[in-house]
Amino acid sequence: MDTNQLKIRPIAPDQDVPRLLSLYAAVETADRLGIKLSEQTLLAQLNATGHDPLKDRWVVEAPADPTALIGSGLVRLSPGSAHAEANIIVHPDWRRRGVGSSLISRIIERASQLGSSEIQFYADTRLPGSQSFLQLHRFSAQGAYTEFRLTEGIKLPPVIWPYGYTMRPYAE
Fold first, then answer.
1. Got the DSSP string for 57-79?
2. Separation between Cα atoms, residue 50 and residue 27, nearest integer Å
3. What 3-state class would DSSP assign to 17?
4. Which of 25, 40, 88, 96 stands the most exposed, by the fewest C-beta atoms within 10 Å?
5. pTM listed for this prediction
6. How far apart are CA 117 and CA 83, in angstroms?
7. Residue ranges of E strands in the chain
8. What confidence tens digit (pLDDT) does each residue in 75-108 have?
9. Which long-range contacts (CB under 8 A, 24 or more apart) does 22-26 make?
């Protein structure tokens, strides 16, 4: 598909929140990564400190149905941070057709305008195309995230933390 035919525009929160939730649901149905986005969470993200959704978020309308979204991208620079955090989501039926590449160019340009020295994406290893997509755009892996789960009822020994280490809730 010719990416010039894609209609990419800034998010319009009043009309796009339900459409974004539908896009995320379609992606979750296909990918099964356990990512559930509620309207409340999405609205909180749109109102985060230092984030201007009208400049920092884009949506891609389906060519045959402008009421449906096939992609979304965002970049955010937290106050006091030197690196921007970014995210791209593309409907499974539209992957490998230039949607993500069109969004990443906007993200890079906006991160530069925000004065960011680097951009961080999270690429889930369960989606093999996510890492190769970012490498195609000259991003390189810088770390790994590991999640462990333990079944209920297993008694653990007390934790002895090295000097200077403490445990905090993930939200902090």
1. EEEEEETTEEEEEEEEEEEE--T
2. 27
3. helix
4. 40
5. 0.79
6. 6
7. 7-10, 57-62, 65-76, 83-90, 118-121
8. 998 888 888 999 999 999 999 999 999 999 999 9
9. 22/68, 22/69, 23/69, 23/70, 23/71, 23/72, 23/89, 23/91, 24/89, 26/91, 26/92
Instruction: For 116-155, give one letter per residue: b (16+ CB within 10 A) or e.
Output: beebebebeeeeeebbebbeeeebeeeeeeeeeeeeeeee
Q: Compute the CA torsion angle 124, 125, 127, 133 (nearest 10 deg).
A: 80
Question: For 9-62, how does the pLDDT look when each residue is reduced to its tens digit (9 = 90+)?
Answer: 999 999 999 999 999 999 999 988 888 888 999 999 999 887 899 999 999 999
- Cβ atoms of 129 and 35 within 8 Å: the answer is no
Burial class, 70, CB count within 10 angstroms (exposed 0-12 / middle 13-18 / buried 19+): buried
Spatial neighbors of 146 by CB under 8 A, at least 6 apart, are none
pLDDT over threshold 70, residue 2? no
Ramachandran angles phi, psi of 110, nearest 5°: -70, -40
Q: How far is CA 108 from CA 47, 85, 90, 161, in A?
A: 22, 11, 17, 39
